[in-house]
Write a structure and sequence with these properties.
It is a single chain. Helix content is about 25%, strand content about 25%. The chain is an alpha+beta fold. The protein has a 3-stranded mixed sheet. The chain has a 3-stranded antiparallel sheet with strand order 6-7-12, with no helix packed on it. A 3-stranded antiparallel sheet has the order 10-9-13. About 20% of the residues have low confidence. It has 8 helices and 13 strands. It has 3 domains: about 55 residues, no CATH class; about 60 residues; about 100 residues, Lipoprotein YajI-like (Immunoglobulin-like, Sandwich).
Length: about 300
């Protein structure tokens, strides 16, 4: 990763290189330029960083410092020169009697002269490992950015197309229920003008109630019966008439006769327009059929969804 590497510049040929922190740790930050073979510290010449080396000027106290290579004679000369040039000892000492001076010299301990030694670090016997790095071209290109943008655009378009496909499928396969809902009616009305949507008439069976059921012998036909039902549509819209299932059973509940009547069988209309059940208005329905049997003492009428 780029965050785990630095860019350093060769101080000799000004070539730039990228070096990882792991390589610097192994090589003790010493690298060899692959361009001019110059060895330098990678961190000291890191790109876009500034390093201020404190160059100390020689001070006046350095003539009093000694190194391990100075001889004892040189140390003595330095000490004598210092005693000779010390103004406090030459000019500020007060005269005294000989016996007092001798007594003073015997009782006053002489302070030892201290010298500060500067020890230089010994040259390493083991060579410091260096890392030879090669020049790497630092080119800022927008090709990768363009590829990333094109890839993101492709996936975004694919996602939008997938969502649109799912929405279209939902609207089509649920068109029978959604067609009659007000928010979707303008959409389906416009769509169905160009495509055969095959939307059946809206129908809610639980909104239709049978208020009355009367079975009587037919007045004109012998052996026939007349069935009258009173239907009420409590829905907020007109809907088709239901199918009527008649069941006749015996004394023990066994089924003796059963038949289902579709609206076109008990409604009388002369054109292709199928009448609809009005809203909150009772509708009389009459059926005529042959009497099933003398054993059919129980009967039941059930409302069903009509055939489309």
């Amino acid at each position: 990763m780029l965050s785990d590497s630095i860019i350093t510049t060769c101080p000799n040929c000004k070539a730039q290189f990228r070096v990882t922190k792991g390589q610097l740790k192994i090589a003790h930050e010493q690298v060899r330029c692959g361009n001019c073979l110059h060895v330098f510290s990678a961190t000291e010449h890191k790109e876009q960083s500034f390093r201020i080396d404190d160059k100390k000027k020689p001070s006046d106290i350095q003539h009093n410092l000694t190194t391990p290579t100075q001889s004892a004679k040189e140390k003595k000369d330095i000490t004598e020169n210092r005693n000779a040039t010390n103004p406090q000892e030459s000019s500020t000492s007060a005269p005294s009697l000989p016996n007092e001076k001798a007594q003073t010299e015997q009782t006053a301990p002489t302070s030892p002269r201290r010298t500060l030694e500067i020890k230089t670090a010994a040259e390493p016997t083991v060579p410091v490992p260096t890392l030879t790095i090669e020049r790497e071209a630092l080119v800022l290109s927008s090709t990768s950015a363009k590829k990333t943008k094109a890839k993101n655009t492709f996936w975004l378009s694919t996602l939008i197309a997938a969502i649109a496909g799912i929405a279209i499928q939902y609207l089509w396969f649920n068109r029978v229920e959604l067609y009659w809902q007000k928010p979707y009616q303008p959409l389906y009305e416009t769509l169905c003008q160009h495509i055969d949507c095959n939307i059946p008439q809206r129908f809610e069976l639980d909104k239709i109630q049978n208020k009355k059921l009367i079975i009587q012998p037919h007045k004109e036909l012998e052996g026939a019966i007349n069935i009258n039902l009173l239907l009420l549509n409590s829905a907020s819209f007109e809907q088709p008439y239901p199918a009527i299932a008649l069941t006749f059973s015996g004394l023990k509940g066994e089924t003796i006769a059963q038949r289902v009547f579709q609206p076109k069988e008990y409604l009388h209309f002369n054109n292709d327009t199928v009448p609809l059940l009005p809203v909150n208005q009772p509708a009389q329905v009459s059926l005529k059929l042959m009497s099933p049997s003398l054993r059919a003492i129980n009967y039941k009428a059930e409302l069903l969804a009509p055939e489309q």
